[in-house]
Amino acid sequence: MTRVVDVDDDGVRIPLTRRRVAAIARAVLRAEAVDDARLSITFVGNRRIAALNRRHLRHRGPTDVISFRLAPETPRGPLIGDIYVAPDVARRNAAAHGSSLREELTRLVVHGVLHVLGFDHPDGRERIASRMWRRQEELVASLQRFHSRSRRQRSARSAA
Question: Treating both helix axes as pointing N-terminal to C-terminal, what angle do 101-116 and 131-159 enclose, rounded to 10 degrees?
Fold first, then answer.
């Protein structure tokens, strides 16, 4: 069982540690029963995400997250994927939806991993009713509960 997650901030500042981002991705892999995976998660600026969006998806402008599932080296090889997240777009999304940047970045990492796993959703308003969106929100809620519980336990230990 190997779940390798590499995280790079590409010089972009985010309110999550690399360790936390990797833990989020591993939690999604574990929840979806994926034992063998290699993921790369890179946080990028608007220019880079816009270039990726244009080159690979033929869309103009920056987007919040782009995922690529790569072919394994062997038929039974690990799931391999690259995920790119744009914190500036995430910041705007968070403000528009009344959530924190930390929560939105968590959501985008979960979203990206689910895409690598083969989940998909329609465009437009229908996407929030999709199976992928429901699963994403279940995972985000679960991760937030776990993170809050861990933070309370650390606070209690340091106060003792």
Answer: 130
Is the pTM higher than 0.85? The answer reads: yes
User: What gap in Å lies between CA 103 and CA 88, rounded to an integer?
Assistant: 14
Q: Parse the chain into domains and list their residue ranges.
A: 2-154
- Secondary structure, 3-state, the chain: CEEEEEEECCCCCCCCCHHHHHHHHHHHHHHCCCCEEEEEEEECCHHHHHHHHHHHHCCCCCCCEEEEEECCCCCCCCEEEEEEECHHHHHHHHHHHCCCHHHHHHHHHHHHHHHHCCCCCCCHHHHHHCHHHHHHHHHHHHHHHHHHHHHHHHHHHHHC
Return per-residue pLDDT of the chain as tens, 160 residues: 688 999 999 889 999 999 999 999 999 999 999 999 999 999 999 999 999 999 999 999 999 999 999 987 777 889 999 999 999 999 999 999 999 999 999 999 999 999 999 999 988 888 888 999 999 999 999 998 866 655 555 455 555 5
CA 108, CA 143: separation in Å to the nearest integer? 13
- How, if at all, do strands 2-8 and 65-70 pair? unpaired
Q: Which fold is adopted by the domain 2-154?
A: Collagenase (Catalytic Domain) (3.40.390)
